[in-house]
Specification:
alpha/beta, 8-stranded parallel β-sheet
Length: 201
Amino acid sequence: MLKGYSIMCLLFFLLLSAGLRAQSIPRADSIKIYRDLETALNNADKVYRLDLSKQKIKVIDPRIFKLTNLRELSLERNKIKDIPDEISALQNLRILKLSHNKLTSINPLVCQLRQLRLLELGDNNIEAIPDEIGQLSQLEELILWSNLIAYFPPSLSRLKNLQQLDLLNNEMTDKEQELIRNYLPDTNIQLSPPCNCDFSE
């Protein structure tokens, strides 16, 4: 009888602990969006969403990487040319938006953000998808429209949870488009009509 009582107490304790943990993390639709870095830094532990879009940013402020509870980071419509290595500190990040910037590459350390669900990099000058992309096992959406991508690594085929891949307005041959479809047969892939371009020249 005592043993059964002890098990019941243990189960109650575990359920209570799980409930407390769940309550400590707000629901996504109720989380405040911070739009000023200074204000965010003053509340660092409580910052889950940061939107610094349209602020003419050229270099990502390294202080952002102190906000290790971040789930969503938006830096769209700026003038950013590089993603620094420190991005890998944001291990809780689910959403990263860097569309409408001046990126020429995707820092491979972005691929260490294992919780990432959405990676949005449209309207840049990115020339290749890094081989490490396959590490993003939770990725559901990869947005790369209007870039200059000419390299598509086989590791794309490891993105088993990928639901959408947007490659509109990237110049691609028939062969390249067929390759992408073979890598990701269950993904909704958005492509512009193929070109007769020769990238070997």
